[in-house]
Amino acid sequence: MSSIRSAMRCVMKNILLATASVLALGAVSAQAADMQRPMPTKAPAYVAPALYNWTGPYVGLSGGGSFGSGSDTGIVGGTLGYNLQSGPWVFGLEGDMNWLSHSSAAVRNNWLGTVRGRVGYAMGASGTIMPYVTGGVAFGDISNAVAGVGMVSDTKTGWTLGGGVEAAISGPLTAKLEYLYVDLGDGPTLAGVGSNYHTNIIRAGLNYRF
After folding, report:
1. Which of 26, 46, 180, 185 is an S-S bond match for 201, by CB 3.0 to 4.6 Å?
2. pLDDT at 4
3. For domain 56-209, which architecture applies?
4. Helix H or strand E segment including 13
5. Three-state SS at 54
6. Residues 61 and 206 sit within 8 Å (Cβ to Cβ)
């Protein structure tokens, strides 16, 4: 009997040693796996792009073409304006003075100025694109030439209405494409021949914002 008990004690001892070894090996493996598992990292916080600010004064140059009143001609001029932005809406006041180069026409306009309000809406992820409508007062000279008689000229005031789109291109520089309809009404009469001036203006411009 004593030999059986000794054998059983030996078997139990071996089982306990094997179980302890397995448990110890499992603990080491689990600890090693935890050491190798990468720490979770948080995604970087979203930062919204900075919105472009249209508020402030600006000056610019523009050039294009004038089509109407019996003659097509080039037009070039300077611009002075101010914008005030409220949310995506941009409200502005703009004035310009332009010179026109006529080849030959009975009714012509040699210089043209406008004072206009503008209402625009800043679009795009950063608000750098602004379509707008514009309208106001136009003024300029109307010349009326009658062959064999001569030419008379008078300064007239009328109106203008149009629209366009302006976009920021680099730093304080913006570029625009614009259409204006201009009507200066009736001009001077010479030898019973009257005159009337209205035109369509398509021009591109470059503005510098301060």
Report:
1. 180
2. 46
3. Beta Barrel (2.40)
4. helix 2-36
5. coil
6. yes
